[in-house]
Design brief:
By secondary structure, this protein is α+β, with helices and mostly antiparallel strands. The chain folds into 2 domains: 232 residues, FAD/NAD(P)-binding domain (3-Layer(bba) Sandwich), CATH 3.50.50; 119 residues, D-Amino Acid Oxidase, subunit A, domain 2 (D-Amino Acid Oxidase, Chain A, domain 2). It is built from 10 helices and 21 strands. The strands form 4 sheets. Strands 5, 6, 13, 14, 15, 16, 17, 18 and 21 form a 9-stranded mixed sheet that branches. Helix 1 runs parallel beside helix 4 and helix 7 runs antiparallel to helix 8.
């Protein structure tokens, strides 16, 4: 039987890891991107759960992957009491356990490792374009037109992100959206050396500041704030961040510039149509305070790889509606429940007393902490 062809649109982290994962199938893969180097210049970081870190390891992305991640075994949450003073309100401590709470990865480093891996895989071909001009039906297949050429595929997977014009044009219906009117501010700080294995989140009035360790002398920060902060200059923003972190990171200074990103909540009800599947942020976008966006994508990918592998073994057409519907029916319910739950928490935690009461109750129950850890690690399984 002739090899089936998969087209992956998007050279972001989702597109790269999807190409690597599906390369284990007996298929030819075209990875179509306008700029595969974009993430190598980013100062953002991603948090990976223990379960998803094991999944990445099985992809054999690089022997040095374990050296590039930073394990975190403690999580502490703080609330502002008064006059910009903070009190610890919740702690999850796995310091003496085998499983870590999170593994931190710098986008730039994991992107470079994935790009290097893709160059080694003969079944993946990277194609560059300025603009995809058309996606159309071509007989029993789907064609993608760019650079004045048409390419035919059994399956197209769009990993181009929620703001992509391609996503909006093809899947512009059945969407649940919540515009938070917030931005995230990301940067990397350098500081005096310490045992840096604790993830910290500081809840301020309508703001959340996360401190995410990436080495003993470097910490990534993600600060979720109202959009009007963009009107202030970067120096003012940096001074405020340095003030907030001084009790946890000594002699902290900025090692990178700061990046801004609009924060929204998006769930799409329609996962696929006519041999075309949405993936990653094109499907679901979460607030970063729970660090679960990319983790959801990796859980989806593990399910997609398993589903397609079985169908290829049986000689079935992987772009058929029956197969894409089977995949969708497995992941859509759990993604919906998880996403709505995160959005509910985000909105509930905007009320200081309610947030503090919830965290105080959870902090007293090891049973509740274990449930939360397992959900964050593996998501929902139903």
């Amino acid at each position: 039987m002739k090899k089936q062809k998969i087209c992956i649109i998007g050279g972001n982290l989702t597109g790269l890891v999807t190409a690597i994962s599906l390369s284990k199938l007996n298929c030819d893969i075209d990875l179509i991107t306008s700029d595969i180097n974009k993430n190598t210049k980013s100062n953002r970081t991603i948090a990976i759960s223990e379960n998803n870190f094991n999944f990445l390891n099985k992809l054999n992305i690089s022997r040095s992957l374990k050296k590039e991640v930073w394990p975190c075994s403690i999580m502490k949450l703080y609330t502002e009491i008064k006059n910009e003073k903070f009190s610890e309100i919740f702690e999850l401590n796995n310091d003496n356990k085998r499983k870590k709470i999170l593994y931190m990865l710098e986008n730039s480093k994991i992107t470079k490792l994935m790009m290097s891996k893709i160059k080694q895989i003969k079944s993946i071909s990277v194609k560059y374009h300025e603009k995809i001009s058309e996606i159309a039906t071509s007989g029993s297949l789907k064609s993608v037109k760019f650079n004045n050429n048409n390419y035919k595929y059994n399956l197209i997977i769009i990993c181009a992100g929620s703001n992509s014009s391609l996503v909006k044009n093809l899947f512009n219906d059945q969407i649940i959206e919540n515009l938070y009117n917030e931005v995230s501010i990301s940067a990397i700080l350098k500081h005096s050396s310490l045992k840096n294995n604790t993830v910290r989140q500081i809840f301020l009035d309508n703001e959340i500041l996360a401190l995410l360790p990436i080495s003993n002398t470097r910490t990534s920060i993600v600060w979720s704030v109202k959009k009007d902060i963009k009107e202030k200059n970067d120096l003012c923003t940096k001074k405020k961040i340095e003030f907030y972190v001084k009790n946890y990171l000594k002699n902290a200074t900025f090692a990178t510039n700061i990046e801004y990103k609009d924060l929204n909540f998006i769930i799409r009800n329609k996962y696929f149509q006519d041999r075309t599947l949405l993936f990653g942020d094109a499907l679901h976008v979460l607030h970063p305070f729970v660090g679960q966006g990319f983790n959801m994508t990796l859980r989806d990918l593990a399910c997609l790889e398993k589903t397609l592998s079985k169908k290829i073994y049986l000689g079935l057409d992987i772009g058929s509606s029956d197969i894409l519907s089977e995949f969708s029916s497995k992941v859509k319910p759990r993604n919906f429940v998880f996403s709505i739950g995160v959005d509910f928490l985000k909105n509930s935690f905007s009320f200081k007393k309610l947030r503090n009461d919830i965290l105080k109750i959870l902090n007293k129950s090891n049973f509740a902490k274990n449930i939360l850890f397992n959900i964050a690690d593996k998501g929902f399984n139903f």
